[in-house]
Amino acid sequence: MAGNRGATSLRLWAGILLLGFLRASPAGAGVDQVRLRLPLKPKLPLRGNERITLAPFIIVTDPEKPKDKSLQSIDPQAEFHRFLKKQLEKKTKFDVVEAPKDVKLPTQNLVELGKAREFWASVGAQTQGEIVVSGSLEFKVEDRSGYKSEEYQSPVDGRTYYRQIYVEQTGYTFDVVFLVFDGHTGEKLLQDEFKDFRQASSRSRDELQGLFENLFSLENQILNTFVPRDREAERYLFTD
Amino acid sequence: MKLDRIIGLSLLLVAGGACTSYSHPEKASTQIAFGTSVAKKGMWREAAFRYQRAIDAEPNNARAHNNLAVALEAGGDFARALAEYKKALELEPNNDYIRRNYTRFAEFYSAYTKTSVKASGGR
To answer: What is the 3-state secondary structure (H, E, C) of A181-239?
Structure first.
């Protein structure tokens, strides 16, 4: 009995020491997952202290559509301007100004808007903006409900089958196209698009909250247009 | 008595293992091991240097190319990282870890490069 206990204890000690050896030796190594922060250079090579003019955006949302009627109380233009101005002032050293209320876009077509050099140069001159930001905004309720195939294991025969299940998924989509212009020449410097979908619980659906969830999830990408940001990522590293 | 001998021998092996971990700097595996240990502490430039040494020792070591790609990515040198991932995958096309790294990187990099900046805005 005592001999058995001694042998068990011996095996236990040997196991612990072997584990310790394997940890100390590279021979026991393989792969590690690491988290890294990817430094993202700003998309626009700016000095960092320019005067930026926020001009109106084309609003794509159609409040006459039945599913968008709930959005009638929201002014995406004002909310987005307020959000963008606040974020730029808080996280950058730009001098941010809004274009005067009487500035009206010359067209509601995004492609033509991007080519309206004279108009953008005049907005730049009027507001003393070195950079002028405009584009289009779309905020809508999106119903993505539908049938999806799901894998399941039968309790009868233990085999794996596929079945169709109905998944209810309603949420908010925010799609912003950025057009950035040189305030002196009116030349388009950059065009970029950011899109986000946030699922919403139908019982506690609040449109304004949905809009801000979209905006905050896009915050990093939007700011990266003007200033350096970083992004978390996971990668595998071999250890020997 | 026998137990004492086994414990003593095991301790000797542990100490030996610890001491010899980085004792062959000419070996690619030694440089990779050291590179990864410093990478985990956030010293990515040193890690990249170590992985490059590993590649110099063994140019066809896919793991070294993969690790160098990760270190370059962490330092923001995405164009070189892409080249290193491609090389790693070319050397070991069936390595699941390299493939996963490359897929994640490619997804990120394509989104990163999709925007084209026409001209310098700052004056």
So the answer is: EECCCCCEEEEEEEEEEEEECCCCCCHHHHHHHHHHHHHHHHHCCCCCEEEEEEEEEEC
